[in-house]
Structures are given as structure tokens and as C-alpha cells.
Amino acid sequence: MKKALIILMVFIVCNVVLAQDSLKVKLLYHWDDSTVYMYNEVWGFVQNNREYAVIGALEGTYFFDITNPANVAELGFVPGKEGGCVHRDYHDFNGYLYMVADEGASSLQIIDLDYLPDSLALVYDSDSLFTRSHNIFIDSSTARLYTCGGDQNNGLRVFSLANPLNPLELVNFAAAAGYVHDVYVRDDTAYVHGGGGFFIYDLTDVVNPQLVGSLTSYPTKGYNHSGWLSLDEMIYCFADENTNTDIKICDVSDFGNITVLDTVNSGGDTNAIPHNLIIKNGFLYASYYQDGLWIYDISDPANTSVVGYYDTHPAIATGYGAWGVYPLLPSGVVLVSDMANGLFVFDVTDAITAVDPTGSEKDLMRVHPNPFTSQIYVELPHFITEGKIEVSLIDLQGRIVTHRLITNNGQKKFDLDTRFLTPGIYFLKVASDEGTHVQKITKAGRITHE
Q: Are 149 and 103 in contact (CB under 8 A)?
């Protein structure tokens, strides 16, 4: 078990009674083939009113019908043109699944999904456009395929999918990011990730891309890896693929003034790396090397909180954990690929319904003042009524600096003496049989003793 500190939520591991490997996330299905050495990306799609999952592995791609998670059907395997591929990526469009890899003599592969679940129809397998691509993204609003990395790529390549089985290159341009690792695109606006940072391009005139925004300096900057845009196009979240770095929650309403509103991480294991993330309905779903699936409520993007997690690789070993996450299926199940442990299908209902989507005050724990100096006052959320309550203050190293056990007789308020704390960020955790709430708090100024 590895859990310790997270931004806005904390769980302590190793010799601490409160330690656990999951929070409000239920495992519905798990698949792992003992002959497979390593897995990579996961993707999901709907075809003919059925839900499907795919997971990449070194030698190719596995397909599953997950319409009924209690009775999942493994449909088969499509080998890649090249085996031993650590990196595979997927995106579906208009009844086709596009598959790429970034090692060896690979190719672009296209599956006609209309034949599912009866057969896997590989209808295109060619290296005429490119041999390798690190990542792909399809902007369905414009029917365009974007490819990143790989070979024959100046930075970012764009293909028309007007004919889904005959991609036609529109532009191949060098981006300010240098090597482009990943991209998210909506309505001809491309959000580009690379070693230089985060960049936004307007591709309305696709042959003349315009750089309209960038962010090259920000907290805990590392290798800018991947990200996702909120439905209202106001918030963008991205991850840096480095150990012990934060996910950034950004205001992108003004491309000329991209602002980091908050940062979050999974904490606990300092080898944890945020890898891929997707936003859905005000929640951010993130896959972490080492630490598995984490779900954040970003409805108030400046005050992000954790609502659930599941450690897909609880063994303490570096270089493993969750590679990808896919929460976009209509049923609401969440798919996760773990590099060592294969495919996971989760029910996250408890995690995402624990938060009142209307922002009702009754479900919030209120702490004031914040920032504080010598004392804080805590008002409990409505779901904590009676019984014993464990109150913990945890510092940024994951250490419990104070712990109290309170018998609650229906009272909703209590106070804590904080004079002994040094200035800085802490996490207040209040746990009972009825639920758990964690809030980030800040000790301001220098220490005073009264």
C-alpha cells in the first residue's frame, strides 16, 4: 500500500489504520493475460448500442464487449504490424477504430466496427502515410485526424477523414513545442503538448496554423505530456510526465492569458507520475504510474478536491501502474489500463454522486479562517451526523501532525488549536462511518504563541 498525501485529500499508508487502496470506486471487471508482459493504452466506444473496450499490449490490441460488466466477452486480438511496441494509441470515428504504434516497422491500422461483436474486421493496414505515430486525436467536428511524434512528422500532421478509409494529409507543420507528444483538438483549435510546454493553435485555415496561446512557465513544470478540455471550453487540465509533479487545472478562456488555477497530485509514492487524463461532467479522471486511477471534482476549478481513487498496482515497484483512463462511455463505467495488470472496468457512481453537482453548501466541510494563524473553526458537512469522528492534520510530507478522536452528539462545529504549526500548507481530514472529507488549509504568517 502506498497512499499518503494528495492535494486536497490525504490518505496515510504503512502502519496507519486509515490506509486503504481505494475510495468510492468499485471494481466490476478485471482482465489480465499471464502471457502478456506489458500493456499500454485503453480506449472505449459504442457501436450498435453496445459498449466496447480495447487495450493495447506489446504485440497488438485486445477487444472486449463490456455492455454487461458482469458478463464481459473477450472478442479477440488484432496483432500489430510490428510486435514489441511499448506505445500504442487509439481513437474511434464514424464507425471505425484507428490504431497506431510508435516502435519499429509499424503502421496505421483501421478496424471496421460494424462487424462487432461477431468479428474483428481489419480493413486498413498500411505504412504509406507513416510507419510510426506516438499519439493520435480525431476532431469529430471537422473529421480530421491529428498525429504526433513518430516518423515523417515535422511536429503535428493533420489528415482529412472525409473518406474514413483514405486519410488525406492536409498539413505537416513544425510546432512551437518542438517535438509534439500529444494533442487535444476541438473545432479546429489544437491544444499541443511537448517538452517546451503547452501551446494552442488555431487551425481554421488548416494550411496556415496560427499560434494563439502558450504556457511555458508554471508550477512543478516537467515534460508536458497530455491534457483535456472541459465541455464549456473554459478549463484545460494537463499533466507533466515526471515523478512527483502536479496536474495543472488551467483557465483557458483567454488564450493570451492562460492561468493555472490549482494543482493536484496523488501523493504518497514520490515515484508516481500523472500520465493521461480526461474531463467529464465536471470531474477529472487521471491515470498515474504507481498510483492507479484518481478522480477529482473540478466543478470549482480553483478548489479541486479528490472524490475517489483505486490503486491498480498496489505492489511497491517503480515503472508500473495505470497507463490510460477512459470515462466517456454512456453507461458511466470507467476503463483503466494498468501496465502490469491489464484491463479494469470500474463503477464510480459513489465517487461522482458524493458531490452535489449544484454546489450545495450542505455537502461541504467549511473551515474558517483560511488562511489561518492560531485557530481554525470547522463546520461539518450534513452527512456526518453522530458517532466517533477522526480528525487529522497532515503536512506536505504526508506526516500526521495532530490527531483527535471526537465523539459527535449531533454537533456540527468544533475548533482546533493551530498555534504549534509552522506556516505552510496542510490538509484537514475528517473521517466518520458516514463519509470522509478533506480540505487544503494554509497557515499564514510566522508562528506566534499566545
A: no
C-alpha cell at 210: 496560427
What would the CATH number be for the domain defined by 361-443?
Answer: 2.60.40.3080
Q: Are 367 and 378 in contact (CB under 8 A)?
A: yes
Secondary structure letter of residue 24 according to DSSP? S
256: buried, middle or exposed (CB in 10 Å: 19+, 13-18, 0-12)? Answer: exposed
| Residue 320 φ/ψ, nearest 5 degrees | -130, -175
Q: Are 195 and 226 in contact (CB under 8 A)?
A: no
pLDDT, average across residues 416-425: 86
Q: In sequence order, what DSSP letters do the residues of 401-417 get, joined into one string? A: EEEEEEEEES--EEEEE
Other CB atoms within 10 Å distance of the CB of residue 264: 24
- Quick one: how far is CA 409 from the chain centroid? 39
Q: Is 244 exposed, middle or buried (0-12, 13-18, 19+ CB in 10 A)?
A: middle
| pLDDT tier for residue 302 given thresholds of 50, 70 and 90 | very high
Contact 116/75 with Cβ under 8 angstroms?
yes
Cα 315 to chain centroid distance, Å, stands at 21
DSSP for 247-280, written as a single string: EEEEE-SSGGG-EEEEEE---S-TT-EEEEEEEE
d(C-alpha 341, C-alpha 31), whole Å: 8
CA distances from 368 to 330, 365, 442 (A): 40, 10, 11
Query: Cell digits for 388?
Result: 466517533
Residue ranges, comma separated, of all CATH 2.130.10.10 domains in the chain are 5-353
Q: Model confidence over 102-158: pLDDT tens digits?
A: 999 999 999 999 999 999 999 999 999 999 999 999 999 999 999 999 999 999 999
- Set of cell numbers at residue 89: 494509441
The span from the first CA to the last CA of the chain, in angstroms, equals 40
Element (H, E) at 181: strand 180-186
For the chain, give every residue range classified as CATH 2.60.40.3080.
361-443
Q: DSSP letter string over 295-360? A: EEE-SSTTS-EEEEEE-S--S--TT-BEEEEE--STT--EEEEETTTEEEEEE-HHHHHSS-TT--
- The model's pTM is 0.77
Q: In what order do the strands lie in the sheet with 108-112?
A: 88-93, 96-101, 108-112, 121-126
The three-state secondary structure class of 114 is: helix
At the top level of CATH, which class does the domain 5-353 belong to?
A: mainly beta
The sign of the CA dihedral 378, 391, 381, 356 is positive
Residues forming beta bridges with residue 224, ordered by sequence position: 240
CB 308 within 8 A of CB 352: yes
